[in-house]
Amino acid sequence: MRRIANIYHHSRTPSLQSRSRFIPAVQFPGAISYSTRARPPIFPSSSSISVTRSPLPCRSTPLPHPPPPPTARIMATTADAVALIESSKKAAAYQAVEDYLLPSHKYVGIGSGSTVVYVVEAIKAKGPAFYGGMTFIPTGSQSKGLITLAGFRMNNLDERPVVDGKAVALDVAFDGADEVDEELNLIKGGGACLFQEKLVAAAAKQFIAVADSRKQSARLCTKWKAIPIEVLPMAAPDVLNKLKDMGSTGPAVRSGLPSKAGECVSDNGMWIIDAPFPSLLLPKDLKDGQDGSGKDGVWEINKLAETLIKLPGIVEIGLFYGFNGDEAVKTRQVLPAQKPIAAYFGLPTGEVQVQKAA
C-alpha cells in the first residue's frame, strides 16, 4: 500500500493565525505539496532569485479582464523558463533541508548536480551555530568545491571514524536525480558522478533526493532515456556489445565535448556509457506472461540492474533501486540501501511536492 498524503497550502494572508493554519486540498498517493511563496523567507533576501520577463508589445486594445494571479507565471522567453526552473529547484532544496537536516547530525552527504548547489546554500543560511558541528562528505569534485566554498568541515568517505569495527553511518545525504519513478527508483549519473554518489547514498541512514518536477516519471527510461554506466575503458567495447544483446538501442560511450575532446572521464578515471532502454517495468507490472527478463528488450528494473552489475568491466550503474535506509533497518538487510526515503520536487507554481516511500 502506498502512503496517502495531503497536499498542503500555506495561507497567503500575513497574520500569524493564518500562517499557522494548513488547508488540505487534493489527495493522491505518496505526495505532499508546500506553497513556498506565502511563508516567511527561510533564506536571506540577498540570495533570492527573482524572475523577470520583458513585456510583449501590445498591438490591440487590452481585454477587460484582470491579469493572471502571481502563481500563473507565463514563460514568455527562454530566460524566464530557466529562471523558473532554478527557482523551483531552490524551493525544493530549502524545504528538504528544513525537513531532514537536524542540528544533532554529525555526518552529512552532499551530492552532485545543479540542485545540490541550493542544498548547500540552504545549509549555509542556517548559520555556523547550526552546522558548525557537522562534517560533510562529498560525492565528487563538484561537491568538494561547494563544501569548501561554503566553509564547511569536509572529510572523504573513507575518513569517517570507525566504531566497533564499522565506519559510522552518515546521518543523512542529499543528492539530485535525473529521473524518479513512482516507487522512488532513480536514474542518476548525468553528471558522471554515479559511482561515488551511490557510495555516499549507501553509507547514509537516510537519503533524500531533490529535483524539479521535470524529473518525475511513472517509469524510468521514459523521460531520461539512457542509463549511465561507469566502465573500465578497456572493457567498453565488450560492454557495448553485451548491452546491444540485452536490448539497448544505440548504447554509446559518452563524449567529453564541449568541455574536453574525447571520452567523458569520471572522477575515478572511468568512462561513462549511456545505454537507452525501453521504459523499465516495476514488479507490479509483471503480468500476462511478462517476466521482465529482457525479452524484446523489456526489463523489470530490479532484474535489469542485477544483470548489468554482474557484467565484467562495469564498475557501477546509474540505477538506484532495491530498498531505502529505513527499510534496510526494519528488515535487517545485509546489502546497502540505495533508494531515497523521500524525493522533493520543485513545481512551476512555487510549491514543493514531496514523494515519500510507502
Automatic annotation (TrEMBL):
Name the CDD domains for this protein. RPI_A
Q: Where is this region: Disordered?
A: 46-66
- Name of the protein in its database record: Ribose-5-phosphate isomerase
Keywords of the record: Isomerase
Q: Report the source organism.
A: Akanthomyces muscarius (Entomopathogenic fungus)
Q: Does the keyword S-adenosyl-L-methionine apply?
A: no
Q: What InterPro entries is this protein classified in?
A: NagB/RpiA_transferase-like (IPR037171), Ribose5P_isomerase_type_A (IPR004788)
Reaction equations catalysed: aldehydo-D-ribose 5-phosphate = D-ribulose 5-phosphate
| GO BP terms, alphabetized | D-ribose metabolic process; pentose-phosphate shunt, non-oxidative branch
**Low complexity: which segments have biased composition?**
46-62
* Biological or metabolic pathway of the protein: Carbohydrate degradation; pentose phosphate pathway; D-ribose 5-phosphate from D-ribulose 5-phosphate (non-oxidative stage): step 1/1
Q: GO CC: one term?
A: cytoplasm
GO MF terms held by the record: ribose-5-phosphate isomerase activity
Q: What is its EC number?
A: 5.3.1.6
Q: What family does the database annotate?
A: Belongs to the ribose 5-phosphate isomerase family.
